[in-house]
């Protein structure tokens, strides 16, 4: 089946397993080899085989991953990077210039906020935080003529707020800006922002795409060839690319994304059921709950509600820290989206870089990345930890 057919005709699971790579012409290898090579023999000066010249510019293992993730997001082109933040930085420098402005989520992932606040700001790019769930405030944060990007996460990290992608795209486009959606929490299985009007999708593939907590990576997917050209240039010019082994691991992870996400969602729903009735828990934050303010939008634009669950612990920060330290099946650690369950305290860990800013997260907040273990074991572990 051709690449085009994969994109337009096949189901998600078929694309996840086949898109981006045809069995090797010489050997029939069903899985792309790890092309551990920095350079390529030329057939005469400029006589490139398949366009490969130097592995910063392109590498066949990376090409396979880039084609695969583009097909999953229903985009035109995919790009793989050394980390999610490397993807973000490359995108910003491809699309913005000093003097421009971007709107960012007021509860963005801490590293994304740090990138805009400490790195892009020093380069001359200004930013304004706005809540992704409040369309009026996003519109009000736009500076006509100066805002190049409206950047959203949905669901956000760690407060799981939901932005209406279709409506946000209309707001951004009316102002002459582009909509960028960080789709890390949903993964392409649960949500495809490009089909809802977004211009660029960002992933930390470290998370659900890789899915096994064994590789750090990032990706961009775009639907417009003009944007693709700019990103291609900057990907090569900046050089923060995914290495072939990292690309291979991520591609391997993507093949089982659909299965894993279904189980992440099943287990998260079990955990949410348990937490909502526990007396030591103040508030459970999960877009699948009818009481979640973004529930209706999430229902419209997501297939299910994902594996991330946040909750507030009665008794404040000390109790929240104690819960994080008492679990045994949930491992205390940063990151998310792997097969194993993780627990963390965003205020002291992933979001420490926003402490003291408007983006500070509540001190009694605990974030769970619910893995694909036996659900009963996860619930029993939380029951023990909550006391
Ligand atoms: C939503 C989100 N976006 C981007 C990133 C950055 O990705 P990476 O850690 O791969 O650089 C993260 C990392 O946790 C994240 O959670």
Classify the beta-strand content into a percent band.
Answer: 5-15%
Shape: globular
Strand tally is 12
CATH architecture of the largest domain: 3-Layer(aba) Sandwich
Protein model, in words:
This protein is an alpha/beta fold and 387 residues long. It folds into 2 domains: 3-255, Aspartate Aminotransferase, domain 2; 257-386, Aspartate Aminotransferase, domain 1. Helices cover 38% and strands 15% of the residues. The chain contains 14 helices and 12 strands. It has helices at residues 3-8, 12-18, 60-72, 84-95, 110-120, 135-141, 165-174, 187-190, 225-238, 244-255, 257-276, 295-301, 316-326, 375-386; strands at residues 77-81, 101-105, 126-130, 147-153, 178-182, 200-204, 218-222, 281-285, 308-313, 331-332, 342-344, 365-369. It has a 7-stranded mixed β-sheet, sandwiched between helices. It has a 5-stranded mixed β-sheet with strand order 8-9-12-11-10. The N and C termini lie far apart (55 Å). The mean pLDDT is 96. Pyridoxal-5'-phosphate is lined by residues 83-85, 109, 111-112, 153, 157, 182, 184-185, 204, 206, 216, 218.
What keyword list fits this structure?
2 domains; 14 helices; 12 strands; 15% strand
Outline the fold blueprint.
Layout: H1 3-8, H2 12-18, H3 60-72, E1 77-81, H4 84-95, E2 101-105, H5 110-120, E3 126-130, H6 135-141, E4 147-153, H7 165-174, E5 178-182, H8 187-190, E6 200-204, E7 218-222, H9 225-238, H10 244-255, H11 257-276, E8 281-285, H12 295-301, E9 308-313, H13 316-326, E10 331-332, E11 342-344, E12 365-369, H14 375-386
Parallel strand pairs: 2-3, 2-4, 4-5, 5-6, 10-11
Antiparallel strand pairs: 1-7, 6-7, 8-9, 9-12, 11-12
This protein binds pyridoxal-5'-phosphate (PLP).
Pyridoxal-5'-phosphate (PLP) is lined by residues 83-85, 109, 111-112, 153, 157, 182, 184-185, 204, 206, 216, 218.
